[in-house]
Protein backbone atom coordinates (compact mmCIF):
# COMPACT_ATOMS: atom_id res chain seq x y z
CA UNK A 1 0.00 0.00 0.00
CA UNK A 2 2.83 2.41 0.84
CA UNK A 3 4.21 1.99 -2.67
CA UNK A 4 1.04 3.50 -4.14
CA UNK A 5 1.78 6.76 -2.26
CA UNK A 6 5.38 6.63 -3.44
CA UNK A 7 4.17 6.16 -7.04
CA UNK A 8 1.77 9.13 -6.64
CA UNK A 9 4.68 11.42 -5.78
CA UNK A 10 6.33 10.91 -9.21
CA UNK A 11 5.48 11.37 -12.88
CA UNK A 12 7.57 8.39 -13.99
CA UNK A 13 8.35 5.18 -12.09
CA UNK A 14 10.63 2.31 -13.06
CA UNK A 15 10.27 -0.92 -11.10
CA UNK A 16 13.32 -3.20 -11.23
CA UNK A 17 12.88 -6.84 -10.30
CA UNK A 18 14.36 -10.28 -10.92
CA UNK A 19 12.86 -12.53 -13.58
CA UNK A 20 12.97 -16.29 -12.95
CA UNK A 21 12.17 -17.54 -16.46
CA UNK A 22 12.62 -16.49 -20.05
CA UNK A 23 15.18 -16.51 -22.81
CA UNK A 24 15.86 -12.76 -22.91
CA UNK A 25 18.37 -11.09 -20.58
CA UNK A 26 15.70 -8.57 -19.51
CA UNK A 27 12.23 -7.25 -20.30
CA UNK A 28 11.15 -3.61 -20.28
CA UNK A 29 7.42 -2.98 -20.43
CA UNK A 30 4.68 -0.52 -19.57
CA UNK A 31 2.51 -1.20 -16.51
CA UNK A 32 -1.19 -0.37 -16.61
CA UNK A 33 -3.41 -0.12 -13.53
CA UNK A 34 -5.42 -3.30 -12.92
CA UNK A 35 -7.90 -3.95 -10.11
CA UNK A 36 -6.17 -7.08 -8.79
CA UNK A 37 -5.81 -7.62 -5.09
CA UNK A 38 -4.33 -11.09 -5.13
CA UNK A 39 -1.13 -10.85 -3.16
CA UNK A 40 1.53 -12.85 -1.44
CA UNK A 41 3.23 -12.11 1.82
CA UNK A 42 5.88 -10.43 -0.34
CA UNK A 43 3.91 -7.89 -2.36
CA UNK A 44 1.04 -6.77 -4.54
CA UNK A 45 1.54 -6.89 -8.29
CA UNK A 46 2.85 -3.68 -9.87
CA UNK A 47 -0.46 -3.39 -11.74
CA UNK A 48 -2.39 -3.52 -8.43
CA UNK A 49 -0.13 -0.87 -6.88
CA UNK A 50 -0.70 1.34 -9.95
CA UNK A 51 -4.46 0.83 -9.51
CA UNK A 52 -4.29 1.84 -5.84
CA UNK A 53 -2.28 4.93 -6.80
CA UNK A 54 -4.99 5.89 -9.28
CA UNK A 55 -7.88 5.19 -6.91
CA UNK A 56 -6.45 6.57 -3.66
CA UNK A 57 -4.46 9.55 -4.90
CA UNK A 58 -6.03 10.27 -8.32
CA UNK A 59 -2.56 10.00 -9.91
CA UNK A 60 -1.53 7.94 -12.91
CA UNK A 61 2.25 8.09 -13.33
CA UNK A 62 4.01 6.50 -16.29
CA UNK A 63 5.09 3.14 -14.81
CA UNK A 64 7.56 0.78 -16.45
CA UNK A 65 9.03 -2.48 -15.22
CA UNK A 66 12.58 -3.66 -15.91
CA UNK A 67 12.67 -7.40 -15.19
CA UNK A 68 16.19 -8.85 -15.27
CA UNK A 69 16.66 -12.58 -15.81
CA UNK A 70 18.31 -14.33 -12.87
CA UNK A 71 19.29 -17.97 -12.43
CA UNK A 72 20.11 -18.68 -8.78
CA UNK A 73 17.54 -17.68 -6.16
CA UNK A 74 18.65 -19.47 -3.01
CA UNK A 75 19.01 -17.39 0.16
CA UNK A 76 22.54 -16.00 0.37
CA UNK A 77 23.34 -16.84 -3.25
CA UNK A 78 25.22 -14.15 -5.18
CA UNK A 79 24.79 -13.21 -8.82
CA UNK A 80 25.78 -15.89 -11.28
CA UNK A 81 28.03 -14.80 -14.16
CA UNK A 82 25.07 -15.04 -16.58
CA UNK A 83 22.83 -12.96 -14.29
CA UNK A 84 25.60 -10.36 -13.93
CA UNK A 85 25.82 -10.13 -17.75
CA UNK A 86 22.03 -9.67 -17.90
CA UNK A 87 22.19 -6.94 -15.25
CA UNK A 88 24.89 -5.10 -17.17
CA UNK A 89 22.90 -5.34 -20.42
CA UNK A 90 19.78 -4.03 -18.63
CA UNK A 91 21.74 -1.14 -17.07
CA UNK A 92 23.20 -0.16 -20.45
CA UNK A 93 19.72 -0.25 -22.01
CA UNK A 94 18.21 1.80 -19.17
CA UNK A 95 20.97 4.40 -19.27
CA UNK A 96 20.36 4.91 -23.01
CA UNK A 97 16.63 5.28 -22.35
CA UNK A 98 17.22 7.81 -19.58
CA UNK A 99 19.68 9.81 -21.70
CA UNK A 100 17.14 9.98 -24.53
CA UNK A 101 14.42 11.10 -22.12
CA UNK A 102 16.69 13.73 -20.55
CA UNK A 103 17.69 15.15 -23.93
CA UNK A 104 20.98 16.75 -24.87
CA UNK A 105 21.43 18.33 -21.43
CA UNK A 106 21.71 15.01 -19.59
CA UNK A 107 24.02 15.18 -16.62
CA UNK A 108 27.45 13.61 -16.24
CA UNK A 109 25.98 11.13 -13.78
CA UNK A 110 24.35 9.36 -16.72
CA UNK A 111 27.65 8.25 -18.25
CA UNK A 112 28.08 4.58 -19.12
CA UNK A 113 27.95 2.51 -15.90
CA UNK A 114 31.14 0.84 -14.75
CA UNK A 115 31.56 -2.91 -15.01
CA UNK A 116 30.14 -4.50 -11.89
CA UNK A 117 32.66 -6.23 -9.68
CA UNK A 118 31.91 -9.73 -8.48
CA UNK A 119 32.26 -10.72 -4.83
CA UNK A 120 33.19 -14.22 -5.96
CA UNK A 121 36.74 -15.42 -6.31
CA UNK A 122 37.89 -17.48 -9.27
CA UNK A 123 36.40 -20.63 -7.72
CA UNK A 124 32.87 -19.19 -7.63
CA UNK A 125 32.70 -18.86 -3.86
CA UNK A 126 32.05 -15.63 -2.04
CA UNK A 127 34.76 -14.22 0.17
CA UNK A 128 34.14 -14.71 3.88
CA UNK A 129 33.86 -11.57 5.96
CA UNK A 130 34.93 -11.17 9.54
CA UNK A 131 32.21 -10.64 12.17
CA UNK A 132 30.96 -7.08 12.22
CA UNK A 133 32.25 -6.34 8.70
**How are the strands ordered across the major sheet?**
1-3-2
| Main β sheet profile | 3 strands, mixed
- What is the total tally of β strands? 3
Shape, per Cα inertia axes: globular
The CATH architecture assignment turns out to be 3-Layer(aba) Sandwich
CATH superfamily: HybD-like
Structural class based on helices, strands and sheet pairing: alpha+beta
User: How large is the share of residues in beta strands?
Assistant: 15-25%
Mean pLDDT: 82
Number of helices: 3
Oligomer: single chain
CATH class: Alpha Beta
Radius of gyration, whole Å: 18 Å
- For this structure, the CATH topology is Rossmann fold
Low-confidence stretches: 128-133
Question: Which bin fits the share of residues in helices?
Answer: 25-40%
Taken together, the total number of domains comes to 1
Describe what you observe in this structure:
This protein is α+β, with helices and mostly antiparallel strands. It has one domain: Rossmann fold (3-Layer(aba) Sandwich), CATH 3.40.50.1450. 31% of the residues lie in helices and 17% in strands. It contains three helices and three strands; from the N terminus they run αββαβα. Strands 1-3-2 form a three-stranded mixed β-sheet. The longest helix has 22 residues, at 81-102. It is globular and about 45 Å long. Mean pLDDT is 82; it is low at 128-133.
Write the topology of this structure:
Elements: H1 2-8, E1 12-19, E2 26-31, H2 46-57, E3 62-69, H3 81-102
Parallel strand pairs: 1-3
Antiparallel strand pairs: 2-3
Helix pairs in contact: 1-2
Amino acid sequence: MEDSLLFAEHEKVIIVDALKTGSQPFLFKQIKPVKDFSFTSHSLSPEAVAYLCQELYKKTPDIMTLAIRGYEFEVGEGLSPAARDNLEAALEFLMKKLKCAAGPRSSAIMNKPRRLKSKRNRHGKEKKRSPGA
